[in-house]
């Protein structure tokens, strides 16, 4: 992942984002990782991470339910000398502890841009400056999350974590990503499988 440039918090993509080649494992790309009450790392307490890329080379995901209320997207736009559109803007999310100065936009794939990663048939990810410009001008993606930082795993690291207490893997749901209130996402993601995540403790890490 590249760090940000002089533009501020939104780095310009210099090439097309592509998924790692020829995975030799069952890819979790497009799935949710839901932290269980047994999660040993307090940074991931009650988190839902959307996996954007996963192969034998490692994995990358974005936490979708941890807004940072200390500053706003309007401030980001003003700092980039972009207009602030009318209406309510979504919060800024902390996508993970890695490269917090780097920004990502996760959005429904009915919006298209030149440089984007198609995570699923309905969800794409970009670091392209044009997406932020389009949002400022009122013709960007209708549903999106603006995130700073990401969560990353080296080769085999995520697989090791999945056999320990900490993560539950479930299919992702676009409604949970873009529509549901942030304080409901953690329980709702697990409840897709009828699991009460607040009391979960016996079965973990299955796809």
Automatic annotation (TrEMBL):
PANTHER family: UNCHARACTERIZED PROTEIN YQGE, UPF0301 PROTEIN YQGE
Coiled coil: none
Superkingdom of origin organism: Bacteria
High-level lineage: Bacteria, Pseudomonadati, Thermodesulfobacteriota, Desulfobulbia, Desulfobulbales
Identification of the protein by name: UPF0301 protein SAMN02745220_01272
Family that this chain belongs to: Belongs to the UPF0301 (AlgH) family.
Entry-linked HAMAP family: UPF0301
Family matches, as Pfam families: DUF179
GO CC entries: cytosol
